[in-house]
Specification:
The protein is α/β, with parallel strands linked by helices and 276 residues long. The protein has a single domain, classed as Rossmann fold. 34% of the residues lie in helices and 14% in strands. It has a 7-stranded mixed beta sheet with strand order 5-4-1-6-7-11-10, with helices on both faces. A two-stranded antiparallel sheet has the order 2-3. Strands 8-9 form a two-stranded parallel ribbon. α3 links the parallel β4 and β5. α2 crosses α3 and α2 runs parallel beside α9. The two termini are 29 Å apart.
């Protein structure tokens, strides 16, 4: 059924001369492992996913959702706060209404497909990829082999890649033995920049260490194993830090990254300028 749905979406996109197909990749997990055996209930951040998705759809592009296993993703309920929409309650309700219409988080009937299915469909069928934040990419996307293969293909073909907040950590998945590399980072041991990281030297941004310190309440007293900024810098990124909780979008070649929830819509707009 999902194959038929995706085929229909891709066919529909082909009917519009300027329409593209944006692949949106999110985790299908809902718990983040913290230090000392603690865990945190989490998921994608509502505004970081839905504001860009709404922008892509409004611009006439087709959006296809994928998760590592094809299971429905989960939203971080703590992100259902109007402040993440700049205090705009109407925008918040629009995001929630679109999410309900898409049925993305429903355990049965979600349109999400697996990264393996994305590969079978063909990476060439997608014009851009977008990875939103929320803490959950720190659990799996940063070391997912399938995502690493997809991002490597996009990089090799100079195809548009957008990420926001904690989502930028997904770029580490392209490191050979990403799982081992991340485990070393999470253990607190010193690790040399990866000589084979395809994004080494790229300018990029992500949720800052300062913002992590200021949002400790989200962790319920726990401590993260790794901060996005530290992980990206260790791997060899040219990290660009903006003011806390202010819009900051960084573009370098095919890569567009945003610092925080406040940057999500701006990342989408920057991507739309480059989508043909």
């Amino acid at each position: 059924m999902k194959k038929t749905l995706i085929a229909g979406l891709l066919a529909a996109a082909a009917n519009f001369a300027n329409a593209g197909t944006v692949l949106v990749v999110v985790s299908d997990l809902d718990k983040l492992d913290l230090q000392d055996g603690k865990t945190m209930q989490t998921g994608f951040f509502l505004n970081e996913l839905m504001e860009p998705v709404q922008a892509f759809i409004n611009a006439g592009h087709t959006v296809v959702f994928a998760t590592p296993s094809g299971k429905a993703p989960s939203a971080d309920q703590k992100s259902d706060d109007v402040n993440f929409w700049g205090g705009n309650e109407q925008a918040r309700q629009q995001s929630k209404a679109l999410l309900a219409t898409l049925k993305l988080t429903e355990k049965t009937g979600s349109p999400a497909i697996s990264l393996a299915q994305v590969k079978r469909i063909g990476y060439d069928k997608f014009d851009a990829v977008f990875v939103p934040g929320g803490h959950i990419p720190m659990q799996d996307l940063l070391k997912d082999k399938g995502l690493g293969e997809l991002l490597t293909n996009f990089h090799s073909n100079n195809k548009l890649t957008g990420l926001t907040c904690h989502g930028t950590i997904a770029l580490l998945s392209t490191i050979p033995d990403a799982r081992g590399y991340v485990a070393t980072l999470e253990s607190g041991k010193h690790v040399a920049p990866s000589a084979k990281w395809i994004y080494s030297g790229y300018k990029m941004t992500a949720f800052t260490n300062e913002e992590e310190e200021q949002s400790k309440a989200f962790l319920g007293g726990g401590h993260m194993k790794l901060f996005p900024q530290d992980g990206l810098v260790a791997a060899g990124a040219a990290y660009v830090e903006g003011k806390p909780w202010s819009e900051n979008v960084v573009e370098d070649r095919e890569l567009i990254s945003g610092q925080n929830p406040q940057s999500a819509k701006a990342v989408a707009n920057a991507m739309l300028k480059k989508l043909h």
